[in-house]
């Protein structure tokens, strides 16, 4: 599946080969194009001009919560208010494996535009919004190689009960952000995810949680600024 994912790439503004890579995964119904402006803005930061941004687009598939309409989606969604109706575990793991495959291409130097140049896992961040954030968390927790960090924006940790047995990593930094007025993914899901990561999965201070007062299911300029500062810390020049 990894080869089937279309990606957009923002190369390092500083020119030359990157010394770090950031993956940005969009949310339900969006595409890579929807996050290009954010990638370009982050890349203009003087402290991030060594970073290459890779933006994959999810496959198109029916989504139960949207009356079965087909749209870009990392996995099927049965409910946005409760996990009691179950989760699309097969879809979650299929997309997680696809992103892990893209990460491995960075590590091997076989990804588009790298021309054999290798980016080690310790210099790779996987981040995403909403559905994309859920896949980012799963990718980081189950990656064979430890990542530089994971960004999780307006999202939640899926497969909550099964992650402890699935995880391979537990000591990478996490940037988690959530709007207090999120009308799609309730703020309480973000809070409970943070508590689970910090208290139950052993991340403690490595998992940072940034609440944004009044922000709905979107990304704010301040959030992107804060995310950029976090990237500067985990992917120094």
Automatic annotation (TrEMBL):
<dbReference type="Pfam" id="PF02230">
    <property type="entry name" value="Abhydrolase_2"/>
</dbReference>
<dbReference type="GO" id="GO:0052689">
    <property type="term" value="F:carboxylic ester hydrolase activity"/>
</dbReference>
<comment type="function">
    <text>Hydrolyzes fatty acids from S-acylated cysteine residues in proteins with a strong preference for palmitoylated G-alpha proteins over other acyl substrates. Mediates the deacylation of G-alpha proteins such as GPA1 in vivo, but has weak or no activity toward palmitoylated Ras proteins. Has weak lysophospholipase activity in vitro; however such activity may not exist in vivo.</text>
</comment>
<dbReference type="GO" id="GO:0005737">
    <property type="term" value="C:cytoplasm"/>
</dbReference>
<feature type="domain" description="Phospholipase/carboxylesterase/thioesterase">
    <location>
        <begin position="18"/>
        <end position="232"/>
    </location>
</feature>
<protein>
    <recommendedName>
        <fullName>Acyl-protein thioesterase 1</fullName>
        <ecNumber>3.1.2.22</ecNumber>
    </recommendedName>
</protein>
<dbReference type="GO" id="GO:0006631">
    <property type="term" value="P:fatty acid metabolic process"/>
</dbReference>
<keyword id="KW-0719">Serine esterase</keyword>
<dbReference type="InterPro" id="IPR029058">
    <property type="entry name" value="AB_hydrolase_fold"/>
</dbReference>
<comment type="similarity">
    <text>Belongs to the AB hydrolase superfamily. AB hydrolase 2 family.</text>
</comment>
<keyword id="KW-0276">Fatty acid metabolism</keyword>
<keyword id="KW-0378">Hydrolase</keyword>
<dbReference type="InterPro" id="IPR050565">
    <property type="entry name" value="LYPA1-2/EST-like"/>
</dbReference>
<keyword id="KW-0443">Lipid metabolism</keyword>
<dbReference type="GO" id="GO:0008474">
    <property type="term" value="F:palmitoyl-(protein) hydrolase activity"/>
</dbReference>
<dbReference type="InterPro" id="IPR003140">
    <property type="entry name" value="PLipase/COase/thioEstase"/>
</dbReference>
